Amino acid sequence: MIVSKDPNEVREQILSWKSQKLSVGFAPTMGFLHEGHANLFVRSSSENSKTVVSIFVNPAQFNDPEDYAKYPVNTEGDLEICKKSKVDLVFLPEKDTMYPGGIPEVELKIPHLMKNLDAITRPGHFEGVLLVLSRLFHSIPADRSYFGKKDYQQYLIVKDFVKALGFPMEIIGVDTVRSPEGLALSSRNARLTDSEKEEALLLSRALRLGESQIRGGEKDPQEVLNVMKDVLDSSSKITTDYLEILNADTLEELHILKGEVLLAVAAFLGQVRLIDNITVRVS
């Protein structure tokens, strides 16, 4: 496994592979890797000749400096997971390499997908995501790039962004990996106590109850939201950031449930912010 901090070296290696007609998959991450990330790597390896992973905690996508400072880091453990997942190249850039001279004052937007959910509650977040991805995609001209659907809004935004800017790359969404109890895997879970992890299960339970209501024939999104809200409100430790039901393709608000529907939640447990979602097909 190649490990490099040099973007030029990384790009040259990838172009060398592609000159040999080898396909390249890419999974951008912020590290502190877990089984959910490994699932991206395995998926990439199954669909490409070579797999590249970047590990970079991107300061541009944090609207809270304290959240950035607390983001967990375990580079040694990350490299071990990459090795076990048969990753071929790991890009480990430094902050000054990604942003020489500091983070530039430029705004990248996909407006029609940035009107709700995390785009509202975390202002500047997706602009920072698109900024770092634009730089990564220049250094890593992969054929396919893999994103977890736990960050569903991000997945849709990146897909449109790549299309709009003409990057010759396919964006592939990979289903959320969960613990046996149903908790969506996240690097932030490491900051939860055991009791908080138990409380965090209410997020997935609320989503599944909402799904059950829809599959039972409920067409009114507000009725489903009320049921989900009751689940979250049953815990005094959970503060809901948002709870929404939207069109899964456009993120538009729904007045009647039909087509592919997204149920999405974000909530705080103490200082830790968690997100989760599921999609449901309504006939």
From TrEMBL:
Binding site for (R)-pantoate: 61, 154
Major location (coarse): cytoplasm
UniProt GO MF annotations: ATP binding; pantoate-beta-alanine ligase activity
Coiled-coil features, chain-numbered ranges: none
Subcellular location: Cytoplasm
Keyword Phosphoprotein belongs to the record: no
GO BP annotations listed: pantothenate biosynthetic process
Keyword Ligase: yes
Sequence positions that bind ATP: 30-37, 148-151, 177, 185-188
HAMAP family for the chain: PanC
Quaternary organization: Homodimer.
UniProt name for this protein: Pantothenate synthetase
Originating species: Leptospira sarikeiensis
